[in-house]
């Protein structure tokens, strides 16, 4: 793990003390020196868990640019998310899954689990765990990502 050290603003000595320490015209300081600035440990942002191939068109998180899916895994662009249009994908990467719960969606009752970006923790959509109607079984194990949470990345000329 990479670690950086940063001075915090509240840990700096008062301006008057700095002036008397730094100014060549100031009278010599009498008494103890101000305390050393406190250091705060900040860890480097973590990298993505998976990177998709650079030669393919892909979709990435709109908030942190983590890779989410290859265009080849796109099944349908005709879905409705809770906040607008959404795409259905066969597989995704860098995504975490919440607990499954039953929801009545536009196409009937489904067991779904919310999915979020593993890098920035933004909720992206959901995963279909189970469909209760036979005509909807094709969605099981597939992922919905809302358009407002993803961008087209790499090779979309």
Automatic annotation (TrEMBL):
Q: Which residues form the Yippee domain?
A: 57-154
What are the protein's UniProt keywords? Metal-binding, Signal, Zinc
| A Pfam entry, by short name | Yippee-Mis18
**Care to name a GO molecular-function term for this sequence?**
metal ion binding
Membrane-spanning segments: none
| Signal sequence, renumbered to the chain | 1-17
Under the heading InterPro entries, the entry gives:
Yippee (IPR034751), Yippee/Mis18/Cereblon (IPR004910), Yippee_fam (IPR039058)
Q: Which family does it belong to?
A: Belongs to the yippee family.
State the protein's name: Protein yippee-like
* Taxonomic source organism: Vicugna pacos
The encoding gene: YPEL3
